[in-house]
Design a protein that fits this description.
Length: about 300
């Protein structure tokens, strides 16, 4: 009989006075059940992805939830196995998501203090409908790295100019989005974790009506698939690189070579470069074309 494997993804914002003790405990849990994965712990919470044989993952989740701080933690199950991770990595960092603003974040037993109002997918639709009746527009604000939105996003979403999550603070402080401060704004990201922090940073900077997509695009897609306000593919941080909610998903990405439709990111042909750009199957074969502008200008 073939063993069934699964991955769990989870996060919790909660005060952890002794992150190092949590690190040792989590590491021992993974080792005990032969699991692999990546866990980041800070004084403000935990963020993990863990995979392995299903009964072992269940035992791990049960043991983790025994800590009162993690009792109510939302756990997302998905396809995958321990093989998806190179090893066990359990680390203590300043932040569980790197905004470069550890001093700004405030958490208590209920999570992030002063964040945007959480909306379930159906509540998001209600908000959009209600605002529409009063002649207002709800602005979607992408909380991911800008390139991710090239293949999928909420319709008409604002995509901030960020290469990494670290760029958000400067982007918000630039004044570019100040016109939204008195308007309804919904932040969204893949699984919800980035919006917990991003929405709080926005509230702190004077945005008056901030909401966040609870459970992120993943939960929204489970509920509405391609029949709602989402368009395109979802970028994912594993070998697949993108996923679709149904076979009706639009391909909104454009090949940098021929502008044909594609949702496939390719690495720059310089092996030391991490730039990802969109290519169709044919153009991807062209090594020169796949060299990104940064690397080509070095060659010249
Ligand atoms: Zn092409
Ligand atoms: Zn490059």
């Amino acid at each position: 009989m073939v063993a069934i494997h699964r991955i769990v993804l989870y996060y919790a914002f909660t005060p952890l006075p002794d992150p190092e003790a949590i690190r040792l405990w989590q590491r021992s849990l993974l080792e005990r059940w032969g699991l692999r994965g990546r866990i980041i712990i800070s004084k403000d919470g935990i963020n993990g992805t863990v995979g392995g044989e299903i009964s072992a993952v269940k035992a791990y989740v049960k043991a983790t939830r025994e800590l009162p701080a993690f009792k109510k933690m939302d756990i997302k199950w998905s396809e995958g196995s321990a093989e998806d991770f190179p090893r066990i990595s359990v680390k203590v960092r300043d932040e569980i998501v790197t905004f470069g603003a550890p001093g700004e974040l405030e958490v208590d037993e209920n999570g992030v203090v002063g964040g945007g109002t959480h909306l379930r997918p159906e509540e998001l639709h209600e908000l959009v409908d209600t605002k529409k009746k009063s002649g207002e527009k709800v602005h979607f604000f992408d909380g991911r790295n800008a390139f991710e939105a090239q293949i999928g996003k909420f319709k008409d979403a604002i995509v901030p100019d960020v290469d990494t999550t670290r760029d958000f603070v400067a982007e918000l402080d630039s004044g570019k989005y100040d016109h939204l401060k008195d308007q309804p704004v919904v932040t969204y990201c893949t699984g919800g974790i980035r919006c917990e922090v991003l929405s709080a940073l926005m509230v702190k900077r004077g945005f008056q009506e901030v909401y966040q997509m609870q459970g992120g695009i993943v939960r929204y897609g489970e509920k509405y698939g391609d029949e709602g306000l989402w368009e395109g593919s979802l970028y994912v941080f594993d070998k697949r690189m993108h996923t679709e909610f149904s076979d009706k998903a639009e391909t909104i990405g454009k090949c940098v070579g021929c502008e044909g439709p594609t949702n496939k990111f390719e690495n720059c042909s310089n092996p030391t470069c991490r730039n990802l750009r969109l290519f169709c199957e044919d153009c991807a074969k062209d090594e020169t074309l796949r060299r990104c502008p940064d690397c080509s200008s070095i060659d010249a």
